[in-house]
Design a protein that fits this description.
370 residues, 4 strands, 15 helices
Length: 370
């Protein structure tokens, strides 16, 4: 059965007011974008230095066990910085005014450094997730069946009752799936969610293959050729990618898979309904957390301000914090709730509550009542 088409209102009073308010703010602060892009450059250099320095230390300095742990922490920190603060903005074309330079930076940090194909990422994340946030059958981040039930419209399974417990080990595995399986599955199925996906031609196709080959080469081939035991290489890989996967998955889950976020089916969305104005829908499906924690904001690439990111994904993340009060004020004028958790613990509690509530939906009555 083919899913119903999803239609949003592309404009409306809220959209016009919000875009006008943000445009006016940026016009009053013309240096803000330049400073933000300089910060992105600093983060890119820092991420590269952490990853390369830690990697070379592991290869050539013959470190003792304790120092191996330090080097792995450095590699993990560099990978987190690269994932949240470099490749994410570059894939959204927010780092440079030039699309070509954004593509190059995204390829270096996403494909080569992290093993997350930038071509695949742009279809899965930019198109499918950002366009159809929390829409059943269209947003791949909300489709984790039969392992997890994240949306009310998804069919129930007996094991979902315990998903608030077993979800966390699964979050450790998401990064491995993105690195080792997602490209093959996506290109073979020729779609992600309901968004079409074709293997690119020309240099873009070469970039897909070369990026994956370079990632697997520096991750596995070079250490083994230098004489390191395969089990040691595999162990380091599991530690680094498992930690990166857990952090990245939790951050994205706290934005949308919480009790405050709205979920919808295609049948519930109509361009005649003002509630399906696209920007209004993004406000309803997305939640911020820890807005006052500047260190967390710096490390996570501003993704604790997910509402701002979903409304203006092509703006560099260092300005998200400055835009939040403007968006909040426009939301208040239009009787919309700008949803925010005061800290990460409140957001985690809401995510666990969401998993429990979704796990109970569709269960037989005796299971729901315990």
């Amino acid at each position: 059965m083919t899913a119903s088409p999803v239609k949003f209102r592309s404009s409306g009073a809220f959209t016009r007011d919000l875009r006008s308010a943000v445009d006016d703010f940026l016009a009053l602060h013309p240096s803000l974008l330049r400073r933000a892009r300089r910060e992105l450059a600093v983060k890119a250099v820092g991420a590269a230095m952490l990853m390369v320095g830690s990697y070379l230390s592991l290869l050539f300095l013959h470190l003792r066990i304790a120092l191996v742990g330090v080097a792995l922490v450095g590699l993990i920190s560099g990978a987190i910085l690269a994932g949240f603060c470099v490749q994410h903005d570059a894939n959204h074309r927010a780092t440079f005014p030039s699309q070509r330079w954004n593509h190059l930076l995204a390829w270096v940090f996403s494909d080569v450094c992290l093993g997350f194909g930038s071509y695949m990422w742009q279809t899965k994340h930019n198109v499918a997730h950002h366009t159809y946030t929390n829409v059943a059958g269209h947003d791949p981040d909300a489709e984790q069946t039969p392992l997890l039930k994240l949306a009310p419209s998804q069919a129930g399974r007996p094991w979902y009752r315990w998903q608030a417990v077993y979800a966390w080990p699964l979050y450790l595995l998401m990064g491995f799936r993105m690195q080792l399986m997602a490209d093959v599955v996506g290109f073979s199925q020729r779609r992600i969610g309901r968004s079409p996906l074709r293997f690119p031609r020309g240099w873009a196709g070469v970039g897909v293959v070369a990026g994956k080959a370079l990632f697997l080469g520096w991750t596995f081939l070079i250490p083994i050729l230098l004489g390191f035991p395969w089990w040691g290489v595999l162990g380091c890989y599991i530690v680094v990618v498992g930690t990166l996967s857990l952090v990245m998955t939790i951050v994205f889950q706290l934005a949308h898979c919480v009790t405050e976020a709205t979920y919808a089916t295609p049948e519930q969305l109509s361009p005649e309904d003002e509630r399906t104005e696209w920007m209004i829908y993004q406000v309803r499906t997305t939640v911020d957390f820890s807005p006052r924690n500047r260190l967390l904001c710096w490390c996570l690439g501003g993704l604790n301000f997910q509402v701002i990111h979903h409304l203006f994904p092509k703006l560099p993340h260092p300005i998200y914090r400055r835009l939040a009060p403007i968006v909040r004020e426009v939301c208040q004028r239009h009787d919309l709730t700008y949803q925010t958790h005061p800290n990460i613990w409140s957001a985690l509690h809401s995510h666990v509550r969401h998993l429990r509530e979704m796990g109970k939906l569709g269960q037989p009555l005796e299971l729901e009542m315990g």
